[in-house]
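user: can you give me the structure for this one chain? tokens are fine.
assistant: on it. calling the predictor now.
[tool input]
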Amino acid sequence: MRLNTKNVTCLGFLICLLVGTISPGYAVLADRPLPKDGVLGVFSPSKLPKIIIDDKEVKFAAGGQIRNQKNVIVQPVTLKAENKGEDVKILYEKDTLGDVKRIWMLTDAEVERVKAGNKAAPLPAIKASTPQTH
């Protein structure tokens, strides 16, 4: 099947329209909820299963999760490239064994929010579903 210029233009317009309607949804991430019992620290990428937080070597839990500043789960091996090898301010949680199980890489605004003691951002209201009768 051959695509003509008109079809390509329509396809391009539809893609731009779709991207334009999706993008506003990402604005919610500026106020993402953070754990109330999380600990503020500085993360330095290193070789797994050990990671460095506040210049101390700690163990990263099996199945641990790292979320970047856009709230996207990232693989630990990509962190050096993503942050150009620089240290990052984080909020983290440990499991019952003392291993780090969750890490949230913070933006400067989130660091200030955490320091002020306001870790939990307000969540959007959830509408109660009405029972359907048949």
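assistant: here you go. The first strand starts at residue 39 and ends at 44. Residues 33-115 form one domain.
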